[in-house]
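A sample follows:
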Amino acid sequence: MTPPRPRPLVLAVLDGIGVAEPAEGNAVLAARMPVLVELRARGLSTSLAASGVSVGLPEGARGSGEAGLLTLGAGRIVKSTRVVIDDAIAANKHGHNVELDRLMQLAVYDASPLHLIGLVSTAGVHSSFEHLLALVDLAAFHEIPVVIHAVLDGVDTPPKSAASLLDRLQLHLEGKNAVVGTVSGRHYAMDGDGRWDRVHCAFHAIVRDNVLGPTAQRSETVFDALSLAYGQGITDAYVEPTRIGEYQGLRGDFLCDFSGTPPVWEWTGEDCGLVFHHRGDGLRQLTQLLGRDGLPDEIVSDLLMDRHHPVRAFREHCLGTLARSSSALSLPVAFPRAPSAACLGEVLARAHCTQLRIFESDRIDHATTFFGGGRELPVEGEFRESVPSPKLIERYDEKPELHIARVAQRAVAAIEAGQHDVIFVHLGSAERVAGTGNRDATKLALEALDVALGTIVKATAAANGALVVTADHGGCEALQDSRGRSQGPHSTNPVPFVLVCDGLDGASLRAGGGLADVAPTILDVLALECPQEMTGRSLLIRG
């Protein structure tokens, strides 16, 4: 007799928690995490591949939240946009890309420099250093001057690693009529939770003075800017937006549209630009400001005005992106990607199962777009609950627990209410704290996460539901290398997978699986048919 379908099935995704041997940099084993330890001991447990080709990334690449959650939700390996662009460059086809070619031709026609905007990093999570170099070479082929607006990492890379990478970049720029125009720590340029004042600092340095605030900070070279920051105890991620050398901002002027009554004056930039991220969420807010597109009305009126006149950094069609950052943006996209069909959320909707996704506000893309296979809007029967992330902190290690307890409280309330068949809970605090490189704070974050997970485990058991616990990628277990150097919150290690469900006596989990096998396993537990599009296989071996 087939056992009844468990309700709810709770999928708890622990962001950035992998499995590794004991080592000085293994914050997961150093932290007190009795709930996770007990779960792995008493439940059906295994480890899953969560990096490189197993999640659609290049061979040997560290896992990431985007790639891991895309794979989790799709139930198959989805080739990442990064790899799509890599393949185009390797085949020398990126120069024939319609949008890239259009932007190059526009820059030539307007005698405009090309502004390349993005994270200069070797981590490969949001951008690719090789993509940047290839774009510089492409512009040089068309004899287009290049201005790079370098966002510094220090989160997915060691906190003070920018100098050597910028040195490599400067060497590549020699003889190519290309310069670095600004540098900015990602703390400013890559905020993703509505802290528009931070992002506007980067916008202000890139675009022009006298929009709001004082004249932008300036250094003669990028190395002077780094030296000044390091001397003040500031690491890469927190470098204040700074203009470099003779860079004065975008070319532009006040223009008047006489078609209206009264006529409307507007400051309009005259250059061309490209945001070179292969992952769309990191620079979304800055891209919105630069494109004056998809913004709340109050942001437009507060930050994009000069003496009561609108400011438009780039003319229509003169700013593009490598990858799509939001359907709300109408900017040209060089490598658009269609959402994956028949992902877990869609399969549940077709089976008339209701589902709830719970997450902190600065991880909305992880729980929605990424887990939805690239789909931004909810499917039928899908509900979402966002817990506001703490905004009155400068660094995540100032408040290691963040709002993990509130996320767990919402999950427990939903489990007890009994209104949903499947509940997805994204527990992302530890990964963000790990990005600061602070091992002690990361331990505290992991311990707070374990307590939160414990409340979810208890509530699920009380409701006679099923529980699946896994992670999107590793990182907290490999914070430092053997020499004590910070490695960032991403790793190539496997991640845990635990299944706790009544009616599985004698069952086991097969070894050698990956994140692509999670969705088929969930469908197996729910006795729902796995669609052909899901090429992953259930991990469950029934006794």
